[in-house]
Amino acid sequence: MCRSYPNGGISVQFNLSSKERVQKQFGQNAEKYVSSEGHAHGTDLALAIEWLQPALDDVMLDIATGGGHVAKALAPSVKSVMVSDLTPAMLETARKHLTDSGVDNAHYVLADAEHLPFLDHSFDVVSCRIAPHHFPDPDAFIREVGRVLRPNGRFLLIDNVAPDDSALSDFVNLVEGIRDPSHVKCLTAVQWQSLLEKNGLLLARDLSRKKKFRFQSWLDRMAPTEAHRLAVSTILLHAPQDFKTYFQIEIEDGTVSSFETDEWIALAVKV
């Protein structure tokens, strides 16, 4: 599949046979990711600026940009930002969002996170936010990040992660997989750290914290059918008490109102 984009965009060709579900899901829901409160206004966007300390001569890559929120936050502080995504509709939506917001130093490219179409040592900064749990091969993704970063380049990873406990991990991945058919797997923070180290990226700082979701908006954003919504609701309502405690599943009048998952924010430097 090829697609060209103006304003510095380039065409890329790759086999998407294993990732069509991602394209379908995000193509159908692109606008929701621009307006989603957790994506558009998360406190991690301020942390991204604080931790990355962008400079006006930095060249940046934002992988799996979604609604383009990280690119939008960092663009005023860098020389240029390459905005990439696997899904054409998502990338078009992000481009419109950034252009309407006055971002004029962005370029847009269709790109698979596991097969980036860039030369070695192309970027000073790479970011990827709330996306890697959709990637079938996290090792390939981190390897590609390490390849395209320049020496001493910075990489910011933000994603939902699974608890170390295997039963809790299986639970959150089951719930996510039913709600969103494009979900692959939330790794643990320890697993991510291992992949970073394996690929020459030194963890400089990290933060583990809870992330609260308003259940209905989270469910409606990606659940493809009423059957999926019912299944997810039923699983949370009837979860074991220790699961309800860990994920802070709040129930009001017999329905789930909110719950929490684990989020990991990590800054790594290419050694």
TrEMBL record:
Molecular-function annotations in GO: S-adenosylmethionine-dependent methyltransferase activity
Protein source organism: Ferroacidibacillus organovorans
Protein's name according to its UniProt entry: Methyltransferase type 11 domain-containing protein
PANTHER family in the record: 2-METHOXY-6-POLYPRENYL-1,4-BENZOQUINOL METHYLASE, MITOCHONDRIAL (PTHR43591:SF24), METHYLTRANSFERASE (PTHR43591)
Pfam families: Methyltransf_11
Ranges of residues in domain Methyltransferase type: 61-156
Top-level taxon of origin: Bacteria
